[in-house]
Design goal:
- Belongs to the GTP cyclohydrolase I family.
- With 211 residues, this protein is of the alpha+beta class.
- It folds into two domains: 60 residues, GTP cyclohydrolase I, N-terminal domain (GTP Cyclohydrolase I, Chain A, domain 1); 130 residues, 2-Layer Sandwich (GTP Cyclohydrolase I, domain 2).
- The chain contains eight helices and seven strands.
- Strands 5-2-3-6-7 form a five-stranded mixed sheet.
- The longest helix is centred in the N-terminal third of the chain and has 17 residues.
- Bound molecules: zinc ion.
């Protein structure tokens, strides 16, 4: 097992996995750079409030990008069950916290996901975990949307997958155009969701959560 993955072995808990183990070697390397950055922005990294900041930031960064150490397909495969149910399954209002790869600033919001089973269903808690596995990386919202769709489609092989994500991007609201309240919405569909009526049904079911 290589060093990159050994500190992030997932516990077999249902739902979210709290990852609070860190690779100290990586933390130290990242922290060294953050100390330099503090100096470069005109700060004094030796003053009391900042002494431990490089290490804290390094740990935060490692947590915020722990998705690289996950295998989303395996998360789904660990809880797939044969079932005849063939109506739409919707999981809405899944919280998302990710970081844009252009500015390394957070974007956050909600994901709404549906699939139409085709012989198998999946444990409902696994869908938010798949969202997290892709969100906890450097991302763009468009790719995040497609990756979640493709993972569910290729692993579960349902009759259709729908993913809608709505997020606020701090790189838009804190800098650049400084639009505080704009929300970016992305969507991706497969299979039966190409049909207008099926997609309308999904959108109707999630609309209460859209804002
Ligand atoms: Zn950005």
């Amino acid at each position: 097992m290589d060093k990159h993955t050994q500190d992030f072995t997932e516990e077999e808990n249902e739902g979210y996995v709290k990852i609070d183990r860190y690779n100290q070697e990586r933390i130290d390397a990242i922290a060294t750079h953050y100390k330099d950055i503090l100096e470069q922005i005109g700060e004094d990294p030796t003053r009391e409030g900042l002494v431990k900041t490089p290490e804290r930031v390094a740990k935060a960064l490692q947590f915020l990008t722990h998705g690289y150490d996950t295998k989303p397909e395996e998360i789904l495969r660990s809880a797939m069950f044969k079932e005849d149910y063939s109506q739409m399954v919707v999981v809405k209002d899944i919280e998302i916290f990710s970081m844009c790869e252009h500015h390394m600033l957070p974007f956050f919001g909600k994901a709404h996901i549906a699939y139409i089973p085709n012989g198998h269903i999946v444990g409902l808690s696994k869908i938010p975990r798949v969202v997290d596995a892709y969100a906890r990386r450097l991302q763009v919202q468009e790719r995040l949307t497609n990756e979640i769709r493709d993972c569910i489609q290729s692993t579960l092989n349902p009759a259709g997958v729908a993913v809608v994500i709505e997020c606020k991007h701090l790189c838009m609201s804190m800098r650049g155009v400084q639009k505080q309240n704009s929300v970016t919405t992305t969507s991706a569909f497969t299979g039966q969701f190409a049909k207008e009526t099926t997609r309308a049904e999904f959108l109707r079911l999630i609309t209460a959560g859209l804002h």
